[in-house]
Structure formats: C-alpha cells, structure tokens
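Below is one protein, fold included:
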Amino acid sequence: MSNAYHIYMKREGTDNEYIDIEADSRFTGMKYSKCTGLNDKGKRKNVYIESYPEENTARTYMGQTVTREPTDINLTMIFSGNSRQASYEAFCAFIENSRVRFYDSVRMREVLLILNEPVKPSEEVFKGSEPYMEVPFKFKNIWGESRTPISI
C-alpha cells in the first residue's frame, strides 16, 4: 500500500468514475485535513423489543438484513493560496446537489453522503506567506455504515 493518502469522490448520476479531489483542477489549493465518523455504524432500524411486566426477558424481533439509521461524517478541508475562494465555491457546487460517494484510500472504506448541514468556513488565516481557510463539511452517510467498495 502506498503511503500517500487520497480521498476520492463521485456524484451519483453525474460522474462515471471517482476523482481524486485534491488533484482535480477545479479545486486548486484544496487539501484534506481530516475525516471523522467513517467507521461509525448507525443504530439498527429493524430490531423490535417488547417487554412485559409479567416476563423476565424481552421479546425481540431482528430482521434478517441489517438496516441502519444514517450516521454523521465530518470532512474538514483546507483551501489555500490565491484561488482558495474559487476552489471553495467550486467544491461546494460539486457536493451540494448530489448524493456523493466518498472513498478513503487508507481505510479503504466507501460511504454514500448527502450534505444537509450549513457550511461555515473558519475565518481566513494568514500565517506565513500563504493565507488559507479551514472548512468543516457535515454530511449524512445515508447507508448508516461504511462499506468495502466493490470497485474503484
């Protein structure tokens, strides 16, 4: 496995292949910072538990196929350099109106995301000679868990 860390995305119904979003020319100066929640599993939706006062144990039903509630995925990106605002706007346009598949090359997990929370960039930071802004994106993983991708 390569030591390089890459994140890939594709929009369902729009993109045929995953793109390395840090290498894409539309997002010049955009860098991955962190991703949390990728391995979280949502609460099971198809489990039913009934308890009765006259019984010591609860009655349960579990569906044969596990279905889960959506989980939160927090992706933080850094936008730097002179094109930081244009890259930020282009990335927002890329993810805002689509279900987006996200693939992480280190954990080798895939999720299906929708952006449903406000995007609130940090204040622009001027450290050294290159200004940047840090932007957290809060997505819902509508699968409720990450999966091993079939093909990338």
The first helix runs from residue 84 to 96. Residues 7-41+71-141 form one domain. The longest strand covers residues 130-141.
